[in-house]
Specification:
- A hairpin with a 5-residue loop joins β6 and β7.
- This protein has a single domain, classed as NAD(P)-binding Rossmann-like Domain (Rossmann fold).
- The protein has 10 helices and 10 strands.
- It is α/β, with parallel strands linked by helices and about 220 residues long.
- The relative contact order is 0.14.
- About 35% of the residues lie in helices and about 20% in strands.
Amino acid sequence: MTHIGILGAGRVGANLAGKLSAAGHHVTLGGRSPEDPAARTSAPAAPRIAFADQRTTARTADIVINATPGDSSLDRLADLRTELAGKILVDVSNATRDAGDGLPGDLCYPGSSLAEKLQATLPETHVVKTLNTMLFMVMTAPDTLAAPPTAYLSGDEEHAKKTVIGLLGDLGWQPERIEDLGDITTARATEAMILVVPHILRRHGFKPFAVSLAR
């Protein structure tokens, strides 16, 4: 059993917490404070889900997942440099600026990526980018789509990526649907894929989908 800390107690964090807890992991969901009502409202009832502030969550977990809003993730996590040192940080966020309708309109880091910025800011942390090319419900239920989706993977440290592949398996991802793109700089390609998402949502509504590789 691994102790997994999730930074961010919204729909993404709560969804991941429920599935990872069901897989046998101890999960701490990190909100603004230990009593963050958003965390307790959104998280499923499960015996292995605890609640804490984000600093405590980062300090006590073996593996940390960044599910905070991408446009503010860099500042939030830079403040947790000491707590995240030596740990794997799984980044599932996209750093975008909203368009007028509230959907992603532009990238915060064109020519780079949130994952690259996090790795540069947290040199003692092993950043792995994944699960950022789909709506949040697909992260934990890939088999619900009509066609098999792809989970892309980017990171500099091979052992960290292998560990994250194991977590993806706990979330329901088959090995053949996981595409290791290479080092952390490849995350700029998958983060740029978010720009197709608002156009799909405007045309088809908020329905589960993923940007996937067909062979």
